[in-house]
Amino acid sequence: MKEQFAIDTTAIEWEKDWSDGNQKHLFNKRLIDDEETGVKIKQMIYPKMFNTRWHTHPCSHGIYVLRGKLKTDKGIYGPGSFIWFPEGVLAEHGSTDDEDVEVLFITNKAFDIYFQDGGSV
Description:
Blueprint: E1 15-19, E2 24-33, E3 40-46, E4 51-56, E5 61-67, E6 70-72, E7 75-77, E8 82-85, E9 91-95, E10 101-107, E11 114-115
Antiparallel strand pairs: 1-2, 2-3, 3-10, 4-9, 4-11, 5-8, 5-10, 6-7, 6-9
């Protein structure tokens, strides 16, 4: 039987993930990783000057800005902004050059990433 649950995100340690493309770490707190649906929800920090270059996903995903500014190919969005990326849309996003951005990252099904240049994160 499935049950409601709560997560104290302040009690979760940040995980470091290395980005070859940016030559720096980004940070994650994995909140939901639903094996049945593929849905993922994580709290993330893109450090300043971090850019996830042109890419697509086989899922839709949303990014809710908690702190700092999210820079995308369509604009710059501050705290309280929610940006939705439909499945297959070509996009790039990350932090601005002057500050980290902390976000809530949500997918609607299994996640993968395909870079336009064929490289890795």
